């Protein structure tokens, strides 16, 4: 017994002398701002990311998530990252187009046809190119997480053709491409921060909004809406952004762990969204909303009508960026 004890003590000392555990890691409290609520799949992604970070850093890198816009909206939180006063945010790309015009490429209507092609573009060279532009603006994108395909909800009438958008007061993200897409369909589009949407719908200041089913579910928009149409008009990614000034002050090991674990979190989040999407739709139906789809002809008609938005915004986004993604998508679809 005594021998055994001595032996194991020797091993313990030997180990700690050779390599003090996690010496390259410091205690870090990483605040992660979210506009959506904790029961959104981003919550699952952050849990998976934390488990990965615990492994890699021996519990030294800690994520503290804030939900429901508690640390401010997407844009406000992103500016806090740029000036180095907050560590991280999970945000849609769309409200950031005023800072990085090229991100507007993801707002072009009907750009991606399905999630698989979005993943290929975002997780590949094109996504890396956008990440370089983000870095120039003081933002490190650790990974592209999923927001998802956006669908329209409203409180006035079923929407099954583009004429139904006529005069409808639709909240859009603070972004000119979304504004034009909905004006072009005849809607009365109103840019608004996400945090104001629920009460604007509740008080009928606006009639409609557009977001993926999981957001209509977890942000409880179904409580204040009567109709939903599966429009799939855009796939806007989430970015897991880190403050570049803060990131640059971290050790190489800490940086690598954050990048690797953000990808682990991304995969979990995407998986949970795929599962939850249809469950959220069921919940929306059970809450009494009328759910419509667009006929194939109508889908083609709306898509056709929306193509003017590409030409109109191409120069502002960057002609090279638009041509690049269009060519990439053609290649994927071959
Ligand atoms: C929107 C976005 C938002 C997200 C979230 C608040 O409609 O889709 O749901 O950016 O962070 O503003």
Automatic annotation (TrEMBL):
Name under which the protein is recorded:
ABC transporter substrate-binding protein
- Record organism: Pseudorhizobium pelagicum
Family matches, as InterPro entries: DctP_fam, TRAP_DctP, TRAP_DctP_sf
GO CC field: outer membrane-bounded periplasmic space
- Tell me the Gene Ontology biological-process terms attached to this UniProt entry: transmembrane transport
Which Pfam family, any one of them, does this sequence belong to? DctP
> Would the keyword Signal be found if you checked this record's keyword annotation?
yes
User: What PANTHER family does its record include?
Assistant: DICARBOXYLATE-BINDING PERIPLASMIC PROTEIN, PTHR33376
Q: Which domain of life is it from?
A: Bacteria
Signal sequence annotation: 1-23
Identify the NCBIfam families for this entry: dctP, TRAP_S1
Alphabetic keyword roster = Signal
Instruction: Tell me if Signal is a UniProt keyword of this record.
Output: yes
């Amino acid at each position: 017994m005594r021998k055994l004890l001595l032996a194991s003590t020797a091993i313990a000392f030997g180990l700690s002398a050779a390599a003090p555990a996690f010496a390259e890691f410091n205690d870090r409290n990483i605040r992660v701002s979210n506009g959506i609520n904790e029961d959104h799949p981003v919550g699952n992604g952050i849990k998976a990311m934390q488990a990965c970070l615990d492994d890699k850093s021996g519990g030294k890198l800690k994520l503290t998530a804030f939900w429901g816009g508690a640390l401010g909206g997407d844009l406000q939180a992103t500016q806090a990252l740029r000036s180095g006063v907050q560590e991280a945010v999970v945000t849609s790309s769309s409200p950031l187009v005023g800072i990085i015009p090229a991100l507007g490429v993801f707002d072009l209507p009907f750009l991606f046809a399905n999630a698989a092609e979005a993943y290929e573009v975002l997780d590949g060279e094109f996504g890396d190119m956008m990440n370089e532009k983000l870095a120039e603006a003081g933002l490190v994108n650790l990974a592209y997480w999923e927001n998802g395909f956006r669908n329209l909800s409203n409180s006035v009438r079923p929407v099954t053709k583009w004429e139904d958008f006529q005069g409808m007061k639709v909240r859009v993200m603070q972004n000119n491409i979304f504004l034009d897409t909905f004006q072009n369909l005849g809607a009365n589009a109103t840019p608004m921060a996400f945090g104001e949407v629920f009460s604007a719908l509740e008080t009928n200041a606006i009639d409609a909004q557009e977001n993926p089913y999981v957001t209509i579910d977890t942000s409880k928009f179904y409580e204040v809406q009567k109709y939903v149409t599966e429009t799939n008009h855009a796939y806007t990614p989430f970015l897991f952004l880190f403050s570049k000034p803060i990131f640059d002050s971290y050790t190489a090991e800490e940086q690598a762990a954050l990048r690797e674990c953000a990808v682990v979190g991304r995969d979990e989040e995407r998986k949970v969204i795929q599962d939850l999407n249809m469950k959220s739709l069921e919940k929306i139906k059970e809450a009494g909303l009328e759910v419509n789809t667009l006929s194939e002809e109508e889908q083609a008609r709306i898509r056709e009508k929306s193509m003017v938005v590409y030409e109109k915004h191409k120069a502002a986004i960057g002609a090279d960026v638009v041509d690049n993604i269009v060519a990439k998508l053609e290649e994927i679809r071959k």
